## 1
Amino acid sequence: MRAYDGGVVLRYMLPPFGTGFRIQSEGTEFRFARAYDCFGLNLGTFGNSHEGEFDPVNSGKIRPFHLFDAPLVCKTGTGSETIALAEADKQDYAGAYFSGFLDGAPGVGIRLSPRHDGRPDNAPAPPPVIVAQPAGPFATPWRVIMTGDTPGTLVESSLIPVLARPGALKDTAWIRPGKGPGTGGTDGRWMFQIQVSTPPRTRPISISLLR
């Protein structure tokens, strides 16, 4: 566990096991002092695009079957004080969602996304996390409670990138912005969107609108 000016974070460190191990679920919970007014993206299913609108929701009405994506942003009721529940430095671990408690208490718990490995019909689902012979201690993602005097303070926070491990790419000078194909449709219209492309896909693509 660590404490920063902009929040509190925690993670679990598991010792190495010679034959590896499996994680079936995670019991991390965030119990609120009272029902907070929040904004969240309730995706409702594990297979999703992580896209949608953040709707207002009272934390006391978040149910066990809800699947809120990170971040879950809540006002504490003390002035403009705001918190956000998030995660950081995820590697070799399942996606996490926020769900309510069976007893209806205000707050949320972590619910891990199941694996989508192909398996025969009626076969039991594999556990969300499978670690095979780790070379050293295994670290789960950081569970993050961001805090701010105002919602804008959370936007300005650098806590998430501070927690991330250094990038694997040491030399990024070869990355150049360019054009690439993409589709996005509204009201029956499809278009090509400007995207970043990297070698070997460096050939420009004309932008067009199809009706």
## 2
Amino acid sequence: MRTFLLLSGLLLCGGCMSTAQPPARQIEQQIVMPAAVAGSNIPEEDLDRVRYGEDLKAYTIGRYVDPNNSGIMYEKNVLYRVEESPQWNLRPNTEIRPPVGKSHRESPSLQKLFDTELKNEVDNQRRFSESLLAQTKRAVDAIEKSIAKSRQMEEQNSLILKKLGEQDKMIRNMEVKIKDYETERNIKNLKKEAEDE
């Protein structure tokens, strides 16, 4: 066993003393990632295009007594409730382009059609606004006429009331005169009867 240790010690020491190094091989590493890897994670910004997440709500609940056991009271806490479960997005979002201006994808005939439709819609809106203004003007004119008529009728009513007041006064004066006349006639009749007796 002693010899074994001596031989192994010599081999080890001899190997450490050698200065020759084997030639180093340089390996170039190229990492190639495929466009879509099966089982890869979907980026957070694209997640809504595939599946909607769950909708969670938090409710703060104050102290309350257990409805099943009046000897138990629960302290204030927060209750989390799933309002809407996750579901697949069956209508993926598409890129939305506003229908204005020219695009490299639009043909000139499509742009001309769009311009024509836009012009027609603007003309329709202008005609509608003009008719609305005309209707408003007619309504204002009718209201002003009815206000003028009501003022005229108010003046006529006040004149009629004044004349009625004057006639009522004349009737009262005539009633007083008739009563005075009747009283005088009654007195004359009584005097005549008294003289005739």
## 3
Amino acid sequence: MLSWPGLCREGEAVYRGGRALPLFTEGHSGLMHNSRPLTEQAHRYLARYLQSGDWALDATAGNGHDTLFLAEQVGPNGHVWAFDIQAVALESTAQRLRAAGLEERVTLIQASHARMLAILPQVVIGRIKAIQFNLGYRPGGDKRLITRPETTLPALTAACRLLHPEGLISLLVYPGHPGGAKEYQAILAWLEGARLGIKRIDGCTDQSPVLFLLSHH
């Protein structure tokens, strides 16, 4: 939910079961440049996994940009669930969806994403093709209201259960804001024990956002 430019040099690494695989060595070594924001790159990867009729989940609705993207991708026969604890975030998201005529494709839920498994219908477990996390705080909102590891980690664990075997989780993390470094370190520790395929895309500094792409294969 925190807005960063993400326009710096990109570095990629691929992990399996918490261990780095020597498939990508770009980025800080200067071998690769990418001018696309990480938010845009997340959409680009998720679009490869989504098609009309699929189910998707936005774990951090914020101002609704990701929710709208997912709603566009799943088409008239698909569905999106979007979580946020802030009523103002869901109001912003609802306005964006109404402007696009896509509100019927989305269920907005005012609750912590840590409660996803308890709230969502059991039928979606293992069947959601794309899950998006955009952590931090809501752009334009109260910067004291941030995502925290106490709820982010349970939400990630739940997301792994909800994810389709051929699906993708996009996880955008922001170490640079107050509280962000703590959450980032907690996520790194969680990833060490996760039995997932993990692709990491870095910004140009230690304070830049980091995009993780997680899958079951």
